[in-house]
């Protein structure tokens, strides 16, 4: 809800990020986030919108919303775009015809529909993907320094020609300056590849990890709200982490011995692949 404390909102975002990272294949996330960001058509971003975009950058999600058609319409409250759709990078080329339905819904929210194709959309001509930077590792000091140093130089080169030519030169210089500033202030973003499951990973470990993450969120929430049971939640979190580490250690040891036995039977089998990975 819009009145939810920002701490609780951040905890939910972390939970969502953990869930996306734990899933294999393409992932679609959609919902009413009650946040504002330029990326989905809101001209005045807020803290929640910035936190969402930082999370999506880490999780490899991209915004599917196109245009600026409002999705929330209530008489007397104005119109906004709280409903946002995301998809993992590998799935985005398969998303087609994202749009807001104007039909009556009986709700304050409009329906959103889109198609997921079997194969990625292939345009008639090849298109070079624009560079992508990891904004979560942005060095604001370097960014400001480069932009400040370059803006005066760029403006000094725009003193000739008519207004249209001058505007075109300013835009070109500004784009080059922003590109250079981004290169200096943050690393390039690497494409997210789904990793294969470790040979020692088990369903029991997966369940223990989910439990550890759940207790971590409960502990963070209790500590942020200064609740009386904060220490109890923290201890439960520590014990869950201990159980998870022990389960991983036991599984690794057992699977390693099994791999060693398999090598005796098949030198070029799974044991060889694990060692040479």
From TrEMBL:
Gene3D superfamilies: Endonuclease/exonuclease/phosphatase. One of its GO terms (molecular function) is catalytic activity. Pfam families: Exo_endo_phos_2. Residues 8-113 form the Endonuclease/exonuclease/phosphatase domain. This is Endo/exonuclease/phosphatase domain-containing protein. It comes from Rhodnius prolixus. The lineage of its organism: Eukaryota, Metazoa, Ecdysozoa, Arthropoda, Hexapoda.
